[in-house]
Specification:
The complex is a heterodimer of chains A (180) and B (183). With 180 residues, chain A is of the alpha/beta class. Chain A has helices at 17-30, 40-61, 115-125, 152-164, and strands at residues 63-69, 88-94, 101-105, 142-146, 170-172. Chain A has a domain at 88-172: Nucleotidyltransferase, domain 5. Helix content of chain A is 33%, strand content 15%. Chain A has a four-stranded mixed sheet with strand order 3-2-4-5, with helices on one face. Chain A is elongated, with a radius of gyration of 40 Å. The termini of chain A are far apart. Mean pLDDT of chain A is 74; it is low at 1-17. With 183 residues, chain B is of the alpha/beta class. In chain B, strand 3 and strand 4 (106-109) form a beta hairpin. The relative contact order of chain B is 0.16. The model of chain B has no long low-confidence stretch (mean pLDDT 81). The chains are: A alpha/beta (180), B alpha/beta (183).
């Protein structure tokens, strides 16, 4: 049974004339125009959008907060008559270069050159278990006194130094307008 | 005739099904668009202070209102590219003045078209803040100010905030480097 009709097993040869004619027509007719959606550009654009949104989203999330307590009232310290504590004053003075500002610990020691040094000096001044020789309690009032032309960057930096040295009662003074 | 018509002869064409990939990518895009809007709807683009040895902590979920003190370039055409600003954030003479104050979704422009004076803007901020306080007396304020602004500009806003009786104000600055990667 297998020998008399071997044709079904060898259709690829296509030598049979009857099939040959049909197959040619059919070859052109059988293959329908392939409808293919080219999605490569779409994926390109989608990835661009994705990268854009990932970058912009993380940009905003890099921000953090420093919690400050604002003095109540007009900004003048009125209710601090009773405690005999002397406030620590940090004076910031603007210099001609915007990236710089002069830091002064009013009446205490020498002026720190940068804000990490300010934090170290403030920590050394604080009285606590590790540092019994310190002369200011952690809740001693501290006033940051920038002149009006000091950039906000430096003011927050001074506040950050106070927070780093674990002072809890930090206030901002009114802007001092320097008469030159 | 016995040849199957379903399995055509010849090499099989590799066919990748991209549909799930595109589905997922669209989901991610929509997610980031929404997140971005939620984060930035109250925030103006600016460069907040970048501190030495920062003690900043992450912004947690809380009942808050964001007050922005934006630089002039927020309302006027930008003089510097973002790249220049990031390299040197305190650059330029036109950045030390506030260009707009924004509380929640409410913006008061101090420069350019439809601008108001600083006094009017501060009054607007105060009355808006009083409305927030009436709705929730425990509300906290997040103060975002550009690092290049003069203190005298920001201090006016701080004084206005403290007059309304808000007790806690959070100053916004960049997180420490190691925590930035965590997001």
């Amino acid at each position: 049974m297998a020998e008399p009709n071997p044709q079904p097993d060898q259709p690829e040869n296509g030598v049979d004339s009857t099939i040959h004619h049909q197959s040619r027509r059919q070859r052109s007719g059988r293959q329908p125009p392939q409808v293919q959606l080219n999605i490569t550009p779409m994926i390109d654009v989608i990835f661009q959008l994705l990268i854009y949104f990932v970058i912009t989203a993380s940009f905003v999330m890099d921000e953090g907060i420093l919690t400050a307590k604002l003095p109540q009232g007009t900004g003048k310290a009125e209710g601090v008559k009773k405690p005999p504590e002397r406030p620590i004053k940090i004076r910031l003075t603007s210099l001609s270069l915007p990236n710089e500002c002069r830091i002064e610990l009013v009446g205490i020691g020498r002026s720190p050159r940068h804000f990490s040094e300010l934090a170290e000096q403030l920590a050394a001044l604080q009285y606590n278990e590790q540092n019994p020789s310190g002369s200011f309690k952690p809740d001693n009032p501290m006033i940051i006194e920038p002149d009006g032309r000091v950039r906000w960057q430096h003011v927050v930096n001074a506040f950050n130094a106070a927070v780093k040295a674990r002072y809890t009662n930090v206030a901002f003074a009114q802007a001092q307008l320097e008469e030159e | 005739m016995s040849k199957s018509k379903v399995h055509k002869p010849g090499a099989a064409k590799p066919n990748m099904n991209m549909t799930p990939l595109i589905d997922v990518t669209f989901q991610i895009i929509i997610f980031f668009m929404l997140i971005n809007n939620i984060v930035s709807e109250q925030s103006v683009q600016m460069i907040v202070p970048n501190l030495d040895e920062p003690e900043t902590r992450k912004i947690e979920e809380m009942k808050k209102v964001v007050i922005n003190v934006a630089p002039v370039e927020h309302v006027l055409p930008q003089q510097y590219t973002i790249k220049q600003r990031k390299d040197s954030p305190l650059l330029g003479p036109d950045r030390e003045e506030a260009g707009a104050l924004k509380i929640g979704m409410n913006e008061y422009r101090l420069k350019g078209p439809a601008s108001v004076t600083m006094g009017e803007a501060l009054q607007g901020i105060q009355s808006d803040l009083e409305r927030y306080l009436a709705a929730d007396p425990e509300i906290e304020v997040e103060l975002r100010a550009d690092c290049a602004l003069y203190y005298e500009q920001v201090q006016l806003v701080m004084a206005a905030i403290s007059q309304t009786g808000v007790k806690t104000v959070h100053l916004v600055a960049f997180l420490p480097e190691d925590q930035r990667q965590a997001n």
